## 1
Amino acid sequence: MPPKELNGDDKTMENKNRKTEYWRWLEYQRIMPGRDWKDAEIVTAGVDVGSVGSKAVIMTDGEIYSWSVMRTGSNSSDSAKKALGWAMENTGLTLKDFKYIVGTGYGRVNVPMANRAITEIACHAKGANYIWGPTVKTVLDVGGQDVKAIRCDENGKVVSFLMNDKCAAGTGRGMEIIADLLQIPIEDVGKVSLSVPEEPEPVSSTCVVFAKTEAVGLLRKGWSKEKVLAAYIRAMAIRMTELIEKVGCEKDFVITGGQSKNIGLVHRVENILNVKRLPVPNLDETGRDPASAGAIGAALFAKALYEKSLKR
Amino acid sequence: MKNLLNVEMVTPIITYYGYTDGSGEYYIVIDAEKCNSCGDCIQVCPQTALKMEAMFIDLEDKMVAAVTEHHRKKIRYTCSSCTPECGSVPCVQACEQKAISCIWKPK
């Protein structure tokens, strides 16, 4: 019989409270100060239901009004509703106020309130063009379960693209799993991975399952957490640069998606490609969030499609 | 966009269907700008791996040839019977617009 304190139901609650989820990233919602949707002629929305995160952006006359970023649940249409609902919170907006809504991302066909769906590739290029301006030519989108390398022209139109969604290797999902294994909060992985005195050899496998096994092996061999993390992120970066080199890296280069916040990854990709990405704009002042680039593009397309429908 | 001779340039819209993994590089490359939706490639594909798919270009939906989602992640096996090494790639040859090409680099 185990000792009483290690047994019994009353311990369950306490254990639950003690559980720490290192992978869990912060969900957020912002409303841009000093703007009122009632003054706008055209209110549109873009909803990007990704494999890991759901993003909703509300635009008034083509400028960002409010947006939300949250986790995608097991039901894409619920996630779409929740994300848009959260972006609408405290704004007084109702669904009737929207002239046009575009759904995009992995779960784009399951956005119930959307007028139409557009592939995330077109939306990401458009969104990156809006966030950083017409000089953007190469976009690397590191999503939850796939990696996309996109080349676009000065209007944000896709010129060539490559998407690797065969496996979760080198994606946000993989990063979550490694963060959890190493017990390092996901927000800190980038910084921690750069704290190693010298860059270790990358892990040989980018497959999440194999990489996790390999990481456990390295820890047992006596590698520090930081070193293992650096080895994993280095492998991610190498995989991504292979994709970019396929489509060709023309300046200016930007990174979108949740992993654009992982400075360890960004730093390594920049080093391997020998190109600096454009810096992330100030979120509070501009609302131009690289994590919601797809939803921004979708909201812009929504406005364009609405205006086009008026001309007919 | 215009080039230096003031002639309207056509920018391609290239999609790479396939992947790079530990065993090599495998892609069917389709230029949606050149594709005229004739469907000849679909007719000749022995694996029925191609289909017409709507692509959102300049606020319009254009029907272009695409590799079906089902085959994108296993293209190395799907297309193994007609790789450049085998001598002929039916879809590439069938396309009069030269919109389809194939990258096949097994390690």
## 2
Amino acid sequence: MEVIQSGIGQLIQKPDLNAFREWNRQKPKALIDKRMTEAEAIDRFVYDGDYIGTELYGTVRCPMSLVNEVVRQKKKDLRVVGQGVFELDMLLAASLVKGMDITYVGLEVYGVSNVFRREVESGRLETCVEWSNAALAWRFKATAMGVPFVPMRSMLGTDTLKYSAAKVVECPFTGDPICLVPALILDVGLIHVHRADKFGNAQIDGISGFAAEMARACKRVIISAEEIVDTEVFRCHPDRTIIPYYLVDAVVYAPFASHPGEMCYIHVRDEEHIKQWVEASQEPATTQAYLDKYIYGVKNHREYLELVGWERLERLKAMAQGVDNEQPCI
Amino acid sequence: MSNPVSDGYSPTELLVCTAARLMTDNTTAFIGTGIPMLAASLAQRMHAPNLVTIFEFGGTGAIFETLPMAVGGECTFHRAIAAAGICDVMEAAQRGFIEYGFIGGAQIDPYGNLNSTVIGEYYHPKVRLPGSGGGNDVGSFCWRTIAIMRHDRRRFLEKVDFVTTPGYLNGPGAREAAGLPPGTGPYRVVTNLAVLGYHLESKRMLLLATQPGVTVEQVIENTGFELAMADQVEENPPPSAEELYILREQVDKDRLYI
């Protein structure tokens, strides 16, 4: 295949699928109780310099209790998948990120991310490589398939492609130019789910984002769950298992772990708290004060929830729509 | 934020009503946060009850009762047809299933190329913006892309600082030559001053209609490149009382956006 164009962005993580196969071969397949605290999970499975990914997105099912612990333990020189709102803001605010495959880092309705701007514009975030949203999801998918790249038909003709590490080739079947994106193998994935068992089997309610693909693209996976349930729940509904236990290294029981984001059918997002962050993140000093209060100033997720206040959390829970039971679901 | 008065309307309300009129019943539309969501909700309650809304993180065919604050929020799949994932949605788009894509950007050029990545030079940006997100994919895959923008000379430029999302690139035939799916591309630009389209041959932006009370001269004045003119430039009708009532009392009754 003739390479027509090569993106000038750095290939941050090389797609070594043979090494990934070897890694997966030695991963334990036994049913082991993997329950532990956030502190233990992050200490054991996240290292300085790691390439990490968070799923889902920003204020929806975001693994905040795990991310906050990464910040608390000051894991540094991280490379990340740049797809985020609140969770990436915390890592960026603490200046822990060195490199990023980015598709979108911002605050959605509240506009650009102030901490992201400061990290890029100051040069502290050394490497940014551009991708589209589909490109990153399909890069996970390539790894999940166990192949070094997938072809795709967006990014073509744009600066997004120019500043990526994608390649454009002449398709050997049609002769048309097509974009190839490399498999992305993560060191660690952090995923928050509705329920898991102690072995790491996991179910998600509502949209699944890119959980299935990302979980299969990671060397290590840490799951946090609103609820820990008996394995019988999975045996009764095996069609609902989105992440099977053998992908998973740690299971953390963490209700409200997506706070101030939302967890569909369980609780809505905490708009006031999000606004508080949007405000705080404007200046370095107030950003630091926020981290001091909500991350460094508490020992763990439970203390964080107490600081936020149970009454407030219950209110967020009461505002959730829940599954619609008024309509006949036959 | 604006304070709409009963006999007037705010610029945001005008954008929402104009965009809603472009959404046709029984079609699929890729919807982003903000104005496209309000417009889709309004269209569903007016003329397009079977508008199939599609959100990039997996929600397909939601019925809006409340407005989402995020593209993955619960409302994006409330009473929906499917709650899938990002690959499912992006692959449907790549297969040609999604008709309209509604997107925004910080800058746009005469060929409809959009920038949402950086202002200034890439390696030393004046402002680092969020990046493509799903924008590039929507602009590549949807049959008809509709950009919603605020209209001024800093945003409507002969050359954008960074082409995040493809319009007609540098002119006729450029999308196909780059390998993008044939027959796709920019269709309309909805702004607070005008509704614009693209010249069939030159693929450059074309003034189709002015917003109520806006002159052609004002549109030209606020555009940083030479604008082609439709044979007859229409004047858009203002938002109707019914549209405004539904928008204020049903679509966004908590005034989250308007």
